[in-house]
């Protein structure tokens, strides 16, 4: 297993990251990414610390590995995975969603069913199993880019026939050694900090576009791979005091461009299969285990948001107002309901082929639906409790560097039981949760975490058990007549 220092050194590998026109070769030292890399290194160190090893380190055939690579064969295994995810999420308060335990949950679920891949292409399942074992053994931090660029959807090969080159990642050549891929994949959240990325499809691929179905893994420092970052919020966080979350927990999002990248066959897991390029995640525990991690991570974020709501009302001296207590009680109930929804996924877990287990998928998708649809509304409630406090504060903490200004600041902005500095610190944290550009990114992130709203609805529609529900009505009506 990697230590934090070993992780830190391992991503100084000459990868090409672009911030606009600027090329960044070392993300561990660049002011836009260094503290984010330190946060990931912190996770590597803490998960192997003595107080966490009993839960967060597992063993098989004499090999120790991070528990998020554990293939669950019992409810106890799922409980162990749950607590591993919960601790990792708590360490970043749920603001680093694609932490090192996220994609390994996909990979581990997929790797429980290698025969499914062997049936589609000879040896593909063996390749998958070997890659899973490599990632587990080397404690790799992996991302996934499984979304196509917006606006690239089309029917058949009409764009190609018209001479328009599609931007979407596709196989452009293959030989005895492997395939060559070219094009763009979205959204590489966390990819800047990862060792490798998985490319594939969580969107349907149209017949005639078999070249786009490629599902494979590639090192992020491979020749021809470049990572195009959105605006990094860490770079504009002038201090941790003023923007504590932006400064430490911006995992970044990026487009990943592959320009004639050669991928050997041992890293190719699916090819030329329109139907299965998406289905592999749902016919295995891959999608359910990964989104269970997302549920747990969201709960830790909500825990901070609800805690902040209470602290703000204490600071504003509004905590004794019955209406405010009612609002806080409502928030506390929602947090408890979410915790219960997640625990229910473990209590009523499901059997999978090969003797493996996964969380209750119906409950998991319902939880995902709840998170997607409630985050913005909850944040609005806390903003109302916060009031205008953040914009009543001086521009930033540099006001305290000047002795004369700081004296005036403490005189006019303090409260009898709270210094001006402490008030400012609280409001700066609240604003970074609710109002900064970092906060805006998280509003978008939670809203579209697993796709647009109708996709969330369809997951629950497909798993609702309509036959069983229909029987309730039929049995009731069968008990009476004219």
Descriptive overview:
This protein is α+β, with helices and mostly antiparallel strands and 482 residues long. It has 2 domains: 4-279, Butyryl-CoA Dehydrogenase, subunit A, domain 2 (Beta Barrel); 286-387 and 436-469, Butyryl-CoA Dehydrogenase, subunit A, domain 3. Helices cover 47% and strands 13% of the residues. It is built from 18 helices and 14 strands. It has helices at residues 4-10, 34-47, 53-56, 75-91, 103-111, 114-120, 124-138, 158-161, 244-248, 276-279, 286-315, 322-347, 361-386, 403-413, 420-434, 437-447, 453-462, 466-478; strands at 17-19, 22-24, 57-60, 63-66, 142-145, 170-174, 178-185, 196-199, 215-219, 225-229, 254-264, 268-270, 350-352, 356-358. It has a 6-stranded mixed beta sheet, with no helix packed on it. It has a 4-stranded mixed beta sheet with strand order 5-8-9-12, covered by helices on one side. The chain has a two-stranded antiparallel ribbon with strand order 3-4. A hairpin with a 3-residue loop joins strand 13 and strand 14 (356-358). Helix 5 (103-111) packs antiparallel against helix 11, helix 11 runs parallel beside helix 13 (361-386) and helix 13 runs antiparallel to helix 17. The protein is globular and about 75 Å long. The relative contact order is 0.11. The mean pLDDT is 95.
Question: What is the strand and helix layout of this fold?
Answer:
Blueprint: H1 4-10, E1 17-19, E2 22-24, H2 34-47, H3 53-56, E3 57-60, E4 63-66, H4 75-91, H5 103-111, H6 114-120, H7 124-138, E5 142-145, H8 158-161, E6 170-174, E7 178-185, E8 196-199, E9 215-219, E10 225-229, H9 244-248, E11 254-264, E12 268-270, H10 276-279, H11 286-315, H12 322-347, E13 350-352, E14 356-358, H13 361-386, H14 403-413, H15 420-434, H16 437-447, H17 453-462, H18 466-478
Parallel strand pairs: 1-10, 5-8
Antiparallel strand pairs: 1-2, 3-4, 6-7, 7-11, 8-9, 9-12, 10-11, 13-14
Helix pairs in contact: 1-2, 4-11, 5-7, 5-11, 6-7, 11-12, 11-13, 11-15, 12-13, 13-17, 15-16
């Amino acid at each position: 297993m990697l230590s934090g220092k070993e992780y830190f050194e391992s991503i100084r590998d000459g990868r090409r990251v672009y911030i606009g026109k600027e090329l960044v070769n070392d993300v561990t030292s660049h002011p836009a990414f260094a503290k984010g890399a330190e946060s990931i290194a912190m996770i590597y160190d803490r998960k192997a610390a003595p107080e966490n090893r009993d839960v967060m380190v597992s063993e098989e055939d004499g090999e120790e590995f991070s528990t998020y690579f554990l293939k669950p064969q019992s409810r106890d295994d799922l409980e162990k995975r749950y607590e591993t995810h919960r601790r990792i999420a708590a360490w970043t308060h749920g603001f680093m969603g694609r932490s090192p335990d996220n994609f390994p949950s996909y990979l581990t679920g997929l790797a429980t069913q290698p025969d499914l891949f062997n049936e589609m292409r000879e040896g593909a399942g063996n390749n998958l199993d070997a890659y899973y074992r490599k990632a587990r053994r080397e404690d790799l931090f992996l991302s996934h880019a499984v979304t196509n660029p917006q606006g690239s959807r089309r029917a058949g090969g009409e764009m190609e026939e018209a001479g328009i080159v599609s931007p979407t990642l596709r196989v452009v050549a293959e030989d005895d050694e492997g395939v060559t891929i070219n094009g763009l994949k979205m959204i590489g959240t966390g990819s800047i900090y990862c060792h490798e990325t998985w490319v594939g499809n969580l969107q349907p691929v149209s017949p005639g576009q078999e070249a786009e179905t490629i599902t494979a893994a590639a090192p992020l420092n491979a020749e021809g791979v470049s990572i195009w970052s959105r605006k990094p919020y860490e770079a504009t966080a002038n201090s941790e005091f003023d923007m504590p979350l932006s400064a430490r927990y911006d995992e970044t999002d990026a487009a990943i461009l592959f320009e004639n990248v050669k991928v050997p066959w041992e890293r190719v897991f699916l090819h030329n299969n329109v139907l299965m390029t998406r289905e592999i995640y749902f016919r295995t525990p891959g999608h359910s285990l990964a989104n269970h991690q997302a549920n747990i991570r969201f709960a830790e974020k909500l825990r901070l948001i609800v805690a902040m709501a209470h602290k703000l009302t204490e600071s504003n001296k509004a905590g004794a107002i019955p209406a405010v207590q009612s609002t806080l009680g409502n928030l506390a109930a929602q947090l408890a309901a979410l915790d219960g929804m997640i625990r229910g996924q473990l209590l009523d877990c499901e059997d999978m082929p090969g003797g493996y287990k996964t969380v209750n998928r119906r409950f998991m998708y319902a939880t995902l639906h709840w998170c997607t649809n409630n985050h913005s509304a909850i944040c609005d409630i806390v903003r109302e409790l916060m009031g205008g406090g953040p914009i009543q504060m001086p521009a930033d903490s540099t006001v305290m560097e000047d002795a004369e200004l700081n004296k005036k600041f403490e005189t006019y902005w303090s409260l009898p039981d709270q210094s001006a500095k402490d008030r400012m610190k609280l409001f700066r944290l609240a604003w970074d949760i609710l109002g900064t550009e970092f906060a805006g990114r998280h509003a978008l992130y939670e809203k579209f975490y697993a796709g647009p709203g109708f996709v969330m609805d369809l997951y629950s529609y497909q798993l609702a058990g309509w036959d069983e529900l229909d029987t309730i009505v039929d049995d009731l009506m069968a008990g009476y007549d004219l």
